[in-house]
# Entry
Amino acid sequence: MKIHEYQAKALLARYGVEVPRGEAVESAAAAAEAFRRLNVAHAVVKAQIHAGGRGKGTFVENPAQRGVQLVDSPGDAEKVAGAMLGKTLVTAQTGPQGRMVRRVLVEAGCVIRRELYLGLVVDRNRGKPVLIASAEGGVEIETVAARHPEAIFHEPIDPWAGLRNFQVRKLAKKLGLDAAGEKSAAVFLPALVRCFLDQDCSLLEINPTVVTGDGTLLALDAKINFDDNAAYRHPEWTDWRDLNEEEPAEVRAQAAGLSYVKLDGNIGCLVNGAGLAMSTMDLIMLHGGKPANFLDVGGGADVRQVTEAFRILLSDSNVQAVLVNIFGGIMRCTTIAEALIAAYQSLGFHVPLVVRLEGTEVAAGRELLEKSGLNIIAANDLTDAARKVVAACNAAASA
Ligand code: ADP
Ligand code: MG
# Structure
């Protein structure tokens, strides 16, 4: 799960991470008010979307407008907020369709002496979090990593001990901080790490972390992703979620207890079990097709879930054929066949449907499908199913 910059900054501040003073607002008039309340000479208006690259991003409605802009009066803040709110911002991370801005952060402008990069992720090879740091901040870290990998430092974190003093000193030296910078880092860095561990983050990125006029560190940007598996111990996450930023079909699927990820192909897949779903997608690709989604209906899929799964698949206008691949292990194939027939009858199908069933009571399950008189293409095995669905999809596309 992702949260907005203004939410991430509020969370970081709780841990003692220095962040600029600011206020998130939803109207241009409120932006002017926020500017007044900040009582500063310069403020920055920042579009709040779940994507970075806003400083360089441009608006569809007005390509000259960027997603981060310096302002120096309430009137200016109002004008700039008005130019962002309700408009579509396209950045390197949003894809060409961009994202509608519904909220802007008005925050105190700061003097930037240097821009550093700081990030925390879980390093799967080391099996622990790692703090990533670079003196080359403010720019895309991916570019630095590709061109100057030696300019990026990795500091593994012991999840029990957190960041230790010697690690802070080591990083301060590598980042070229002076005495004031190192003193500030001794508070800033451990606080970041505590937030990451406590809050079950999967990613925490402060790019840029700036060295301000007085030499101390400040989190100028903030990006936090949470590990969804930890949602049960963070009830407050529900309030922080912004459904406008999520794929509507994924939200619906989640509500129905389905694991669904939208992809950009045209073959809808309904599968039980994540492993089987992955191999189904692989086989579709192998036979020249492209999956429209990953969908795992789980081990105990019932009529309601199968119907909702079909509804989600069919609501995607890219979908030109659907492949159902179910292995009846815990579940019986007859149950699945009944659920398929019921879902088919209640929804109606406008695209070809290929079904491959295997497992417990498979013969009876297949017979049910055959006798239903529905327009279902039966497949004998996984390869057969993949070939048939790709052929059906190609035929539908060329028809
Ligand atoms: P993004 O990563 O989405 O482009 P950032 O928050 O990193 O957005 O902002 C982009 C740039 O805008 C920063 O690198 C910094 O130079 C400038 N900036 C952002 N916030 C402030 C601020 N409060 N004061 C001064 N400059 C800022
Ligand atoms: Mg940034």
Remarks:
- Residues 52, 207, 221 surround magnesium ion (ligand 2) (CB under 6 Å).
- The mean pLDDT is 94.
- The first strand starts at residue 22 and ends at 25.
